Amino acid sequence: MTTEQKIQVLREDFLKRNGENYTSAERSGRLGWEQTLSSGSAYSAAMLSPKDDADLHRIAYNHARDMIVAMNTPFKVRIALTPDASFTDSKVVSVATDMFDDTRLSVGQKIDIFTGLAIHEGSHLLYTDFRVMPRAKNRIIADLFNIIEDERIEMLTGQERPGLANFLGCVKYYYFDRHSTRMQASSAGAPPERSVRLINSILSMIRYPKAMEEDDLREFADTLYEVRDVILPYPETCAEAFNAAQRIFDIIRRFFNQEQKKSAPKEAKGGEGNGSGTQGRQPSLSDEQLEKMLGSLLDSLEKDVTGQPPDGTSSAGMKPERMSGAIRKDGTRLGKATGKGPRG
To answer: Which residues neighbour 187 within 8 Å (Cβ) at sequence distance 6 or greater?
Structure first.
C-alpha cells in the first residue's frame, strides 16, 4: 500500500463511530424517545436554575449519582468531588469539577460534562478488570492501555445504554477541543517536537480523530498505520486492550530508536566502517530512557484530557448545537436516559 493510500485510510474513523463527537450508540430496536428531545440545548437543561455555586454542585452531584445507580454498577460506590481529575478505584468515583469554573459554559452544559465524567468512571466499574493495570511494566504502556480501554468501555456503554452516549460525547468534545486548541497555540511560535506530534496523533486517532493534524497524518502515516493494524479488530476485553498497548509501545520504541539512529553523529573518519564494529552506532533506548524522554509529554496530555482547569487559551467554547438535547420532564427520566435499562 502506498503512503497516499495509507493516508486516505487513516483520514477515516476506523471505528465507524456515530455522531460528531465520536461516540458509539446502539441504533437498532429503539423506541424513538430521543427524537422527542428538543435539539440545540443541553441534555441537563431541564434542571432548575441553581441559586448559587453550591446549589449547582448539589444538582450535578445528585444527577451524576442517579446515573451511576441507573447503570447498575457491580459495586456499591460513592461519588467524590475533586478539583481537576476524574478516576475510580472501584470503591469511590471521583469526578472533576473544573468545568463549573468555565464561564463559557451554560449551567446545563456544566452538568452534562460533569455527568459524562461520572458515567465514564461508572463504565470502568462495569467493564474494566482492575487487576490488569498493575501488569504494565512502565508508564507509557499504562497510559496507552488507558487510552485504548477508555474507548472500549465507552463503546460498550453506548451499545448497552445508548442514551448515555450523549453525555460521553459532551465530555469528549470539551476536553479534546481544549487539548487541540492548546496544541495549536503551542505550535504558533515553533512546531512541537516530533515526539509530541506522534503521541498526540496516536491519542487522537483512537479517541478523537478530528484532532489529528493533516501534516502529522502525512508525516507519521507509516507508523500510524502500524498502530491501526494493532488495534483492529478493536479489543473486546481488558486483556486484549493491554496486549494492544504493549504492541503499540513496541512500535513507539522502534520509532524513537530509528529517530536516534538518524540523529547520531558519524565519526569524522571512517564512519561505521572503520573496523571497530561499534563506532557510529547508537544503542537502543531502554524502557526507562524512553519513559524519561516522554515523561513531560505524558504529563501534558494527561492534564489536557483528564480534567485540569481551563487556562483561558481556548476560544472555541462549548456550542449549544453540539449538546444532546433536553431531558424530558417526566418521572421516568433515568429509564429513558439509559435506553435499555440496567443489565440483569
So the answer is: none
Distance CA 180, CA 209 (A): 11
Helix (H, G, I), strand (E, B) or coil at 79: strand
The sheet carrying 78-82 orders its strands as: 78-82, 92-96, 87-88
Cell of 259: 529517530
Phi, psi for 95 (deg, rounded to 5): -120, 130
Take residue 332 and report the three cell numbers written for it: 421516568
Dist. CA 9–CA 3, nearest whole Å: 10
Cell of 260: 536516534
Q: Tell the residue number behind the cell numbers 484532532, with chain if given.
A: 211
SS3 213: coil
**Per-residue burial over 263-279, b = 16 or more CB atoms within 10 Å of its CB, e = otherwise:** eeeeeeeeeeeeeeeee
Q: Which residue has the cell 564512519?
A: 271
Tell me the sheet residues that pair with 88. 93
Q: Which amino acid is at 258?
A: Q
Sorted by sequence, the CB contacts under 8 Å of residue 129 that are 6+ apart come out as: 237, 238, 239
What is the rounded CA–CA span in Å between residue 273 and residue 335? Answer: 72
Distance between CA atoms of residues 101 and 265, nearest Å? 50
| d(C-alpha 71, C-alpha 343), whole Å | 8
| Residues in Cβ contact with 240 at an 8 Å cutoff, skipping those fewer than 6 apart | none
Could you write out the DSSP letters of every residue in 86-151?
A: -EE-SSEEEEE-GGGG-TTS-HHHHHHHHHHHHHHHHHHHHH--TTSGGG-SSHHHHHHHHHHHHH
Amino acid at 231: I
Residues 6 or more apart in contact with residue 52 via CB below 8 angstroms: none
pLDDT along the chain (344 residues), means of 10: 90 82 62 38 56 82 85 81 77 83 85 90 90 85 91 92 87 79 62 80 89 89 96 96 95 88 60 48 74 73 50 32 30 30 32
To the nearest 10 degrees (0 to 180), the angle between helices 165-186 and 139-160 is 140
> What's the CA gap between 162 and 123, in Å, rounded?
12
Query: Which residue type occupies 296?
Result: S
